[in-house]
Write a structure and sequence with these properties.
There is one protein chain. The protein is flat. The protein is an all-alpha fold. It has one domain. The longest helix has 26 residues. α3 packs antiparallel against α4.
């Protein structure tokens, strides 16, 4: 977000996101626990007494999706359209795929396949790291003004 938006807008959005995460965390900590809902072999949100807390997570996840995956796709599109910096385009595609994989794993979790989440999170982090590495190795200047300032 800080690489794609004006600093003031990115700062305001960062504060709002941080506030939502802190408030959500406090609610989770304060929520009564229903131990009878616990499963011995997997984690479950069913143990939370205040189930309404789980309604907050889609907003945080959608926000993250828009800026991580959407920002990477947007950057890859710009590099592809201008036919410049192929490595930066590939790196952004890898970052977008890496950001998408945990969401796919989370969907499997909803259907009872919790183990898939851990695999997709790991592979997603590897993709994000690879994309970052490819972009850093490229050595060319970004087409995004904020990124140029950060790199220098």
């Amino acid at each position: 977000m800080h690489l794609l938006l004006k600093n003031r807008t990115a700062n305001v959005l960062s504060v709002l996101l941080l506030l939502a995460i802190v408030v959500s965390s406090v609610f989770v900590i304060l929520s009564p626990i229903d131990a009878s809902q616990a499963e011995a072999h997997r984690l479950t949100g069913a143990v939370l007494g205040w189930q309404w807390i789980r309604l907050i997570t889609p907003f945080i996840n959608i926000y993250a999706f828009i800026f991580l995956v959407g920002g990477a796709i947007w950057s890859a599109w710009i590099y592809a359209r201008k036919r410049i910096h192929r490595a930066r385009m590939i790196g952004n595609i890898a970052i977008a795929v890496g950001g998408l994989l945990p969401g796919i794993g989370g969907s499997f979790t909803k259907f009872g396949y919790t183990e898939v989440l851990y695999v997709t999170e790991f592979v997603g982090l590897c993709c994000i790291f690879y994309g970052y590495w490819v972009i850093r190795q490229d050595g060319t200047r970004s087409v995004h003004g904020n990124q140029v300032l950060v790199a220098e």
